[in-house]
Each structure stands twice: as C-alpha cells, then as structure tokens.
Design a protein that fits this description.
This protein is α+β, with helices and mostly antiparallel strands. Helices cover 33% and strands 30% of the residues. It has one domain: 50s Ribosomal Protein L5, Chain: A, CATH 3.30.1440. It has a 6-stranded antiparallel sheet with strand order 2-3-1-6-5-4. The protein is globular and about 45 Å long.
C-alpha cells in the first residue's frame, strides 16, 4: 500500500519571459482554490551572467495534494496519461520514493497540462510512503496515481 507524502513544483522564469505568465502557468497546475498559495521566489544568475527567477511551491498537506493531483489528472489528455503510465518506471526513484513529472510550461499557461520531456518545463515531484518493501514499485505507484486520474487505470 502506498500513501501520498509531499508534492512540489519548480519552474524557472528566464530573462526573455514575463514572470507573471510563468507564475500563471504554475498556478494553472493548481485548483483555483489554491491560486493564492504563496510561492517561494528565488532570484539567481546563470553561469553566463543572465538573471533568472526560480518559483517553488511545496505542500505536505494530504488533502491539498489529493486535490491538486485530481485537478492535474482532470486536465491531462489520454495521451499524457498513457505516456506517464508507460514511462513511470523511468520517472520513479524507488530509493527516495519520488515520482518526477515534467509538464510543458507554455501549454500550462494556456491551461493545457501536457507531460513532456522538453527542457522548458514545470517540474513536479510527488513523494510517497511505501509501508512494505514489496509495495515500492512502479506498478503500485501507477495504481496510486490512477486514483487521482493521472495514469491509466490498470486492467
């Protein structure tokens, strides 16, 4: 049996982007009830001297995580759910009990959540608790995420 642990989102806003649009893309990953949640904002500079901002959102509130995952699951296309299901083994770190999902930042701005392998993304990390060693595997993780509509239900 698996249980949700924590959820975090990280997104970068580069000098060529409008910060408010990047923040909107991140908030579009959250149900509207959570659009006032405080983001951590960190200003930094690349090795080439270009400024950028990192926005981060984290929660370990189980009800909030469940609501956010349901929201994302309702916005993901069948193709994204299938892709996530088929590639979950590569996206799950069983040692840290974390699932890594990359959402397209530009499509998220338009309220279209798409799982991608691109570079300009919103990084989502879902941590979970496994109560037995035998439960800590991608098939069980897929069942957990299917409860929230994020992966295809197993047959």
């Amino acid at each position: 049996m698996l249980d949700l642990g924590s959820l975090s989102f990280t997104v970068f806003s580069y000098v060529t982007e409008e910060n408010d649009r990047v923040v909107k893309a991140l908030y579009n990953c959250l149900p509207s009830d959570y659009h006032n949640e405080k983001l951590v904002k960190i200003a930094s500079t690349s090795q080439f001297g270009d400024p950028f901002i990192v926005y981060n959102y984290e929660t370990d509130d189980k009800a909030m995580i469940a609501a956010i995952l349901r929201h994302i699951g309702s916005k993901l296309s069948d193709e994204s759910k299938r892709y996530l299901t088929d590639n979950l083994e590569n996206k799950t770190d069983e040692e840290t009990r974390t699932v890594y999902v990359r959402l397209n930042k530009y499509q998220a701005f338009n309220e279209d959540l798409v799982v991608t392998e691109g570079n300009d993304i919103i990084k989502m990390e879902i941590s979970y608790f496994a109560y037995t060693k035998s439960d800590n595997n991608p098939a069980e993780v897929s069942k957990l995420l299917a409860e929230y509509g994020m992966t295809e239900a197993s047959s």
